[in-house]
Amino acid sequence: MVTILFHSTIFGPVHSRRLGTSLGVNLSPVDGKVCSFDCVYCEAGYNSQGTGKSGLPPREEVSRLLEAKLKEMRDAGASLDVITFSGNGEPTLHPDFENIINDTVRLRDLYFPEAKVSVLCNSTRLDREGVVNGLMKVDNCILKLDSALTPTMRLIDQPVSKSFTCEYLIPQLEAFGDKCIIQTMMLRGNHNGEHIDNTTPEEVDALIEAYKRIGPREVMLYSIDRATPESDLQKVGREELEAIAERVREAGIKVLVS
């Protein structure tokens, strides 16, 4: 059974296939999962495993632990490409998200000024002023769009909010424009008796139209890399991903396949 990945607030550094040497920041509980999506492919498992008992880490603790790790790495002569907010859920659910970003940028500038700050965000809270303010301050604002068609998005991402739709989301992504990177997980398979496939021509056409409307700095296309809570999912191979990426590039959009 797939369960929570990270049992600490600061983790790594690890090698990210998309971002390089990455020091992780987990704003979710260290013994549970808190997320506004319940994705069928989530490496941290389904929300049903519970939120744990530790609660969300306080802002002061995040800052203290992050500074201690950055100082340790600097003193050891280690290299660092990026500080990445990910972890056991959605980082923008933290009520102090904007202030934590402010702290992180300050500490980055002090210890590793060449490193980037990245946030992996599921895009569900882009209607919150504090969330948008925080995301606008980071180097890599990586926002999720797994399908531009609401029924497919709801099958893949299983948003907690029953009213969350692509029609509601895409204009919010458009407001970020080239300040954001769009990340799309390509996959196919089955879940609860329903077939999932966001690689069909209809799906790719809809994604391309959404990408054109949003105008992101880049699109990241990727597929399953680790165990998933839904066992009946298939990884999309590199050759097929490249073929999809080429269609996106023909529309004038920069694409990274990983």
Word description of this protein:
With 258 residues, this protein is of the alpha/beta class. 33% of the residues lie in helices and 22% in strands. It is built from seven helices and eleven strands. The strands form two sheets. Strands 1-2-3-4-5-6-9-11 form an eight-stranded mixed β-sheet. It has a three-stranded antiparallel β-sheet with strand order 8-7-10, with helices on one face. Helix 1 links the parallel strand 2 and strand 3. Helix 1 packs parallel to helix 2. The longest helix has 17 residues. It is globular and about 50 Å long. The model has no long low-confidence stretch (mean pLDDT 96).
Question: What is the N-to-C succession of helices and strands?
Answer: EEHEHEHEHHEEEHEEHE
Please mark out the parts with pLDDT under 50 across 5 or more consecutive residues, or reply none: none
The average pLDDT score comes to: 96
What is the terminal separation in angstroms?
25 Å
Number of helices: 7
- Major sheet attributes: 8 strands, mixed
DSSP, total strands: 11
Task: Name the features.
258 residues, alpha/beta, eight-stranded mixed beta sheet, three-stranded antiparallel beta sheet, 11 strands
Q: In summary, what is this structure?
A:
The protein has 7 helices and 11 strands. It is α/β, with parallel strands linked by helices.
Which SSEs are present, and which pair or pack?
Elements: E1 10-16, E2 20-26, H1 59-75, E3 82-86, H2 97-111, E4 116-121, H3 129-136, E5 140-144, H4 150-157, H5 166-176, E6 180-185, E7 187-191, E8 194-197, H6 201-214, E9 218-222, E10 233-235, H7 238-250, E11 255-257
Parallel strand pairs: 2-3, 3-4, 4-5, 5-6, 6-9, 9-11
Antiparallel strand pairs: 1-2, 7-8, 7-10
Helix pairs in contact: 1-2, 2-3
